[in-house]
Amino acid sequence: RRVLLLGEGNFSFAAALCGAQGTHVVATCYESEEEAAGHGGAARSIRRLRDSGAEVVFSVDCTKLKEHFLPGEREFDRIYFNFPHCGRKAGVAKNRQLLAGFFHSCAEVLAQQGEIHVALCNGQGGTPADQPRREWHNSWQIVAVAAGAGFILSDIHPFKAENIDGYKCTGYRSQDKSFCVEGALNHIFTRSTAPLCFTPVSCQTQLGSQKVSFQVPQVLVDKINRGFLEVNSTHPVRTIKEKLSAGLSQAFPLQDISSCLPLLHQGHPGGVCHSNIFWITLSPGEAPSTEKVSQGLAEAVLCSHFGQDIDENVQEAIPKQFYLRPSLLPHAQALIKNGAFSPGTFQVLSGPVFRKCQISPHSMPVFHEMLVVLAASRGTENSCIQMLVDNMETTMNSLHQGISGIKPSISLQEATSFGAELSDFAAFEWQLGEIQHFLCVGTEADPSGSCVGVIRTAPEELKSCELVVVSASLNLDLLAMLLCGISDWRMLWTWDRRFLGQFPEGELRLFKSFSLYPPSYEHDVSFWVPDGEEFDEVAFHTLARGVSGEMVVSIQLRDNFQQPGTGRRSLCYRVTFQSCDRALGCQEAAELQLHLREEIQQHLSVTLR
């Protein structure tokens, strides 16, 4: 591998590396050879480097690396810059500029899978790893500066000068003097994935007996048809689904009927707030007739009243409104109503479902639902529910064996006694129909547990005299987050291969983030809302998701002002931009904010202030 060292003073660090097998060292410094040789021990280190076959290059500007190397010699596997400094008494602003130029220059000479190692004195970097940590404005803000050039901080560890044979730090205030390296940190940066290009995407799906296409909502462009549950997938959500299915199959026969479930429903989802639904317009000329929709999977498509019967004459009067499925429950209810159901057999349905929601680390506009349905003898429903829970707990405990630091525990909470503060997932499930129990999973880090599922018994009209139907709806994405220690749902949808690389062959492990301490940027936006209209916050959050490519992590209401005399109402929100998996620089965040302001005015009928 080719290793580039920048800003060497006495070349003692380069000399310590030059003996490594399979490594070609290119050691450089900013000074001329004559000036560099004047540093104590430099001449000896330079001779050692040259004798070992290393290259030594002088007068190298770290902000113009491309100019110092021929095209065939520009790809380095690792770049080191130990204790960069502009010299003399340069302040933090000048040193940030130096780092910015350095990182942009590295982008032109670093191999695709290469690393950049930057050692800084304690406190300079401005990350939580610095102890004590400086105030942000008084640090070099290295992670934000690197993000501007497309790099993310992937690791950080102490810089132990005493373990480097013959190393002596020098250059304090541009003098041949040592400086304090106690508590120094080595920051390791890697390339970020490129920004996603959100061009309009058309999706084709089955609707009854007809194939139709529609334009995917902007916020879902990078999430539609990702195939996380397909046979060849190693994604954690598939692993968990397969393990749970295998565990359940030991108690009863199991039938997986997930492959025939359409993405679209038609009509009006009864009981569900319309602002939580992704409404769809079919491509021109493709809206099927009610008769066509009624064929084949009619019940699965038209049972969008969640258990309510639809009279045939009423069907004809329903406007052709289409929406992405918010739940798999209507498909299960359709099976029950049609009698296409085997008592004593687990029916498993799984697939992505889509719900508009406000922005938070655990609120997902799309997630993978696993719906388990069982018909049992009347009077045995409680024992069936307990059997389901025990089975899942046994499966999760077996998964836990390979995940250190996570010890899951499952608990059932009566729906009537569940706290008033419901998660978005639990609150939406309430809209779908009556719930008997919430299924909560706790870990060592969060013993109180998070709601990952709900358990229902079928509505009265779906019950027979002898049988009762029990269903358990699970949010596989939330389960994956809890079991693998993933703090942000967006990481499950990353395009960075380093995520799935941590789960080889479907093995569950404790996730280690490859983007540490990502910078965040706060911007405020205020606007007048139309007179007499209620502002739709869910629409605002959904718009922010789409415009930013899920780069917004928080939207908080800062002020609600009513103008005396006119009664006009103004709202002010603080929008926080932050990425969990790729580089986001301050300039890009500012551009996203400007774009968001334009879209708010155009789509939400507000007047910007």
UniProtKB/TrEMBL annotation:
Its EC number is 6.1.1.20. It is an enzyme of class 6 (ligase). It comes from the Eukaryota. It catalyses: tRNA(Phe) + L-phenylalanine + ATP = L-phenylalanyl-tRNA(Phe) + AMP + diphosphate + H(+). GO terms for molecular function: ATP binding; phenylalanine-tRNA ligase activity; rRNA (uridine-N3-)-methyltransferase activity. It is found in: Mitochondrion matrix. GO terms for biological process: rRNA base methylation; translation. Its main location: mitochondrion. Residues 516-609 form the FDX-ACB domain. Pfam families: BMT5-like (PF10354), FDX-ACB (PF03147). Keywords: Aminoacyl-tRNA synthetase, ATP-binding, Ligase, Mitochondrion, Nucleotide-binding, Protein biosynthesis, Transit peptide. One of its GO terms (cellular component) is mitochondrial matrix. The keyword Repeat does not apply. Belongs to the class-II aminoacyl-tRNA synthetase family. This is phenylalanine--tRNA ligase. It comes from Peucedramus taeniatus (Olive warbler).
